[in-house]
Design a protein that fits this description.
globular
């Protein structure tokens, strides 16, 4: 049975995977526009369908469609107010980061470029870790473990307690075979 802890993990994964996508929406806004948005989010009771939260909820809906099951979706419905609050907090963190960057003349474009370069470097590796596999290909750890157990996804491990590695070419072949 899925618990709130499972929901927290899913929210954390969403934040990691979608932060840059949401940042891009705000990087060209003026500081006063960002401050108005921050003020609105801080002063008002925000519902999940509030237009100010739309960029986050649209991305969250897409993420949930690709990364959950019926049990998680029911848990989300049961805890919709908590989810809305966490998504508002996430959006506020992004807006504050944009505001801070603009006030200190640091470039969010540079941060995004660094993140894209980090992802590109991972994709160019010969072997990747389970965390990198999840980040790049979106396969949940429990699904990867199931695929390994069923010998559907090749992996490499030096010793019993060593880190499990996956040859990126094998992962690409697997993904191409099962996602077409």
């Amino acid at each position: 049975m899925k618990t709130i802890k499972d929901l927290e993990k899913l929210l954390s994964k969403f934040k990691n995977n979608y932060k840059n996508r949401i940042l891009i929406r705000y990087i060209h806004d003026e500081i006063d526009e960002i401050e108005k948005e921050i003020s609105y989010l801080q002063k008002n009771t925000i519902l999940i369908n509030d237009e100010h939260l739309a960029i986050v909820t649209n991305n969250f809906d897409e993420f949930i469609a690709n990364n959950s099951d019926e049990e998680i979706e029911n848990l989300i419905e049961e805890n919709i107010e908590t989810i809305a609050l966490k998504l508002v907090k996430f959006l506020l963190e992004i807006l504050c980061e944009v505001k801070y960057s603009k006030l200190n003349n640091t470039s969010i474009d540079e941060k995004i470029a660094e993140e894209l370069l980090r992802i590109k470097i991972i994709k160019e590796k010969e072997f990747i870790t389970m965390d990198e596999l999840e980040e790049i290909f979106g396969l949940k750890k429990d699904k990867v473990l199931e695929l390994r157990t069923n010998k559907e996804l090749k992996y490499f491990q030096m010793g019993d307690k060593e880190k499990v590695l996956f040859k990126i070419e094998d992962v690409r072949k697997f993904m191409n075979k099962y996602t077409k």
